């Protein structure tokens, strides 16, 4: 009779996610994953499959937890221009507090392996698109409230903000200087101050 699993899937996926986040895909060996997840190799393979399948599950888990929590502020019904400013300020504060300088798992993975694995690239882009859509929703709401000029295309602007955020995530990893980050964000968000039409 097969033994039932005695581990919590959410808990072990969180540990796998953190391992990939800190060490990257290539440096996260199966031995390291087994050790950090606290399950045996047979359970890992039996539940998640191979390393790539586990990584894709960890990416999905990152989207459902870290990303969802981050962008919740942008998806509120009363989201405004100030909400977008607050979102970037929160990202800076979290980056400064992160002593491991992990950056963003999605951005890290895009730079490390997306070019060599199209399936992983599709999954990463799907998750990054969720961030773009959250920006688009917030921008449209701010435009409807005449806080942001409707001369600005919300799709283009959402893509710009998402790309800028990804660039900041890279900067976080190599130079998490608070003044530099805040000055950069100020320049990024200056586009939102485009004059409203009369």
> What is the C-level CATH assignment of the domain at 59-193?
Mainly Alpha
| Backbone shape | elongated
From the 3D structure, determine the CATH topology of the domain at 59-193: Tetracycline Repressor, domain 2
Strand content: under 5%
Task: Give a short overview.
By secondary structure, the chain is mainly α. The protein has nine helices and no strands.
Give a written overview of the molecule.
The longest helix has 27 residues. This protein starts with 8 loop residues before the first helix and ends in a 9-residue tail after the last helix. The relative contact order is 0.12. Helices cover 71% and strands 0% of the residues. It has a domain of 135 residues: Tetracycline Repressor, domain 2 (Orthogonal Bundle), CATH 1.10.357. It has 198 residues and is an all-alpha fold. It is built from 9 helices and no strands.
Present the secondary structure layout.
Layout lengths: L8 H19 L2 H8 L3 H8 L2 H21 L9 H17 L7 H8 L5 H27 L9 H21 L3 H12 L9
Which properties best describe this structure?
Tetracycline Repressor, domain 2, mainly alpha, elongated, 198 residues
């Amino acid at each position: 009779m097969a033994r039932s699993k005695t581990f919590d899937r959410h808990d072990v996926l969180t540990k796998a996610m953190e391992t990939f986040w800190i060490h990257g895909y290539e440096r996260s060996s199966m031995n390291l994953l087994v050790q950090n997840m606290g399950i045996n190799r047979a359970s890992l393979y039996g539940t998640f499959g191979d390393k790539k399948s586990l990584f894709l599950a960890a990416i999905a888990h990152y989207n459902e937890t870290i990303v969802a929590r981050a962008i919740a502020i942008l998806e509120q019904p009363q989201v405004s221009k100030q909400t977008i400013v607050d979102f970037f300020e929160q990202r800076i504060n979290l980056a400064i507090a992160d002593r491991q300088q992990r950056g963003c798992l999605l951005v890290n993975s895009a730079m490390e392996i997306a070019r060599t694995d199209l399936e992983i690239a599709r999954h990463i882009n799907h998750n990054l698109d969720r961030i773009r859509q959250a920006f688009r929703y917030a921008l449209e709401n701010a435009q409807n409230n005449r806080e942001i000029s409707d001369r600005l295309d919300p799709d283009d602007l959402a893509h710009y903000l998402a790309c800028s955020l990804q660039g900041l995530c890279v900067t976080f990893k190599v130079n998490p200087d608070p003044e530099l980050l805040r000055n950069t964000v100020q320049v990024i968000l200056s586009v939102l101050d485009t004059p409203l039409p009369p």
